[in-house]
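Retry 2 of 3 after timeout on previous attempt. Resubmitting structure tokens to design endpoint.
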């Protein structure tokens, strides 16, 4: 199965391309993906759904705040307006294929003195599948109590580039692709994709700048001063519109308001992403060692610069944030570069393992067993969503969500039974809950509560506030926090059978409907019961300010 240049090169090339295409399809199945309206999609699809005039979402308060990912929202809008929502699964699958292609690029490029055989590609791909397989991750959780394979593809602080579903963070695969293309000497194409990641999701602008600086230092060591300047100017030209958009729409509106909003985001809503004291556990330290080991493997190659520079910059800024406790620096997530460097390290280390493997092709034929592993993992990956073994949501909500979608009308606004977790005290380390059983997921105080996360997208109706989805402009963050505390207070009164005492407040805030647990009883003179099941009730406020 060794590919050679002197015997039937065209046939060998066709075999290799056929193998790649088959593996891409199998990888998408083996990796699996969550159903629509899962987790972060409820944050990032909202503006696009509202722009597409779906339901009455254009009346939702959050949908009318500044959009942090306008290009992504426009893609969502166009898809929903002119196509079908299942196309989002295809978008995600294409990015999964880019991710797998990055692995092959590194495997092919890392040792230019050796020609890769089809059997070597097969065993490398099988190992890559095993680390990324949804089935192996599911098994790890049930046998070991944690999703340990996840830590070979995710960075520290709960940051990642693939995850469970289509969302803006997926475009981090373009940072990985940029690194890989640079190894193949495609320098300007690499720069383009690095910048594209930041254009599509501004949180990647800083990590992209780290990598571009690594490129430039590499060129300086090569004595290519002109190329150093050209690449820098090219990158600056590409990202300038995104930087201007972010500056115009998310600049501080006042010093005190900006400071207060940052504190809410860092310590109240995003502490598990923002505070090294919380996310830096033994797993994170092992991930850092993993990156360092990959740098060690590259030590004799000048290309080590393009990995070493972003790693050092991320490390220095992380230590600076720890020392200064600066909230602005925390919200820039300098450690997010690990979400690219960890999978890159995994790919590189797997490549070296296969390279060092002395294949005795006359005695051991590894191609067929490797291919069998790929098909088995793909089959098991299909089984995960079919048998509902991962990506759990609260299906008890399905009935009431469906009812609201069918019956909501203009000027309706819904109050949810909001839960406010104390993430700063409960969330330690990084974890993935994608394969955690629903019962444990609902009671896990380390994660954002999963109840009613799907409300907006599933019902296409506006709600007053929830904890999961947040704005980013400082003024909007302050309003979000105020609304959240209001909703929490109201729900305490409702749970205490004292809803009539807050009736006027609800009307003043244009709330027309309340969702409560099924055991709550409200005054039938003031509230009309529209829906009831074993878990939830839907009440309409009589004589609301809403028509």
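Retry 2 succeeded. Sequence:
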């Amino acid at each position: 199965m060794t590919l050679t240049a002197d015997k039937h090169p065209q046939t060998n090339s066709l075999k290799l391309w056929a193998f790649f295409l088959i593996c891409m399809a199998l990888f998408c199945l083996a990796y699996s993906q969550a159903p629509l309206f899962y987790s972060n999609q409820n944050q990032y699809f909202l503006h696009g759904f509202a722009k597409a005039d779906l339901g009455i979402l254009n009346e939702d308060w959050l949908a009318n705040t500044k959009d942090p990912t306008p290009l992504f929202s426009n893609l969502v809008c166009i898809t929903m307006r002119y196509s079908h929502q299942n196309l989002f699964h295809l978008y995600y699958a294409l990015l999964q294929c880019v991710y797998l292609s990055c692995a092959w690029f590194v495997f092919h490029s890392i040792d230019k003195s050796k020609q890769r055989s089809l059997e070597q590609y097969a065993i490398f791909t099988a190992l890559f599948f095993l680390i990324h397989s949804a089935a192996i991750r599911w098994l790890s959780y049930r046998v070991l109590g944690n999703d340990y394979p996840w830590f070979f593809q995710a960075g520290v602080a709960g940051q990642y580039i693939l995850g469970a579903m289509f969302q803006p963070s997926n475009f981090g695969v373009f940072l990985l692709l940029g690194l890989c293309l640079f190894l193949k000497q495609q320098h300007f194409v690499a720069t383009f994709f690095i910048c594209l990641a930041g254009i599509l999701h501004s949180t990647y602008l800083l990590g992209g700048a780290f990598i571009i600086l690594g490129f430039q230092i590499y060129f300086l060591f090569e004595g290519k001063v002109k190329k150093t300047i050209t690449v820098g100017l090219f990158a600056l030209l590409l990202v300038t519109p995104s930087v201007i958009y972010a500056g115009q729409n998310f600049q501080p509106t006042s010093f005190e308001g900006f400071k207060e909003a940052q504190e809410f985001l860092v310590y109240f809503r995003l502490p598990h992403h923002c505070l090294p004291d919380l996310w830096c556990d033994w797993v994170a330290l092992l991930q850092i060692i993993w990156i360092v080991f990959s740098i060690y493997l590259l030590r004799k190659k000048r290309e080590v610069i393009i990995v070493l520079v972003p790693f050092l910059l991320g490390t220095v800024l992380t230590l600076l944030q720890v020392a200064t406790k600066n909230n602005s620096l925390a919200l820039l997530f300098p450690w997010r570069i690990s979400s690219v460097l960890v999978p890159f390290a995994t790919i590189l280390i797997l490549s070296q393992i296969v390279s060092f493997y002395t294949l005795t092709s006359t005695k051991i034929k590894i191609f067929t067993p490797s291919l069998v592993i790929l098909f088995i993992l793909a089959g098991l990956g299909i089984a995960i969503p079919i048998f509902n073994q991962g990506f759990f949501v609260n299906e008890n909500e399905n009935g009431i969500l469906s009812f609201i979608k069918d019956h909501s009308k203009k000027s309706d606004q819904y109050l949810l039974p909001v839960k406010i977790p104390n993430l700063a005290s409960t969330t330690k380390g990084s974890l993935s809950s994608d394969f955690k059983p629903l019962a444990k997921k609902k009671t896990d105080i380390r994660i954002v509560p999963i109840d009613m996360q799907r409300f907006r997208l599933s019902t296409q109706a506006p709600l007053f506030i929830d904890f999961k989805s947040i704005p980013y402009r400082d003024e909007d963050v302050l309003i979000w926090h105020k609304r959240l505390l209001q909703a929490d207070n109201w729900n305490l009164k409702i749970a205490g059978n004292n809803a009539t005492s807050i009736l006027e407040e609800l009307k003043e805030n244009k709330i027309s409907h309340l969702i409560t647990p099924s055991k709550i009883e409200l005054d039938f003179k003031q509230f009309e019961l529209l829906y009831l099941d074993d878990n939830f009730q839907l009440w309409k406020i009589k004589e609301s300010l809403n028509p």
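Attempt log closed. The first helix runs from residue 9 to 31.
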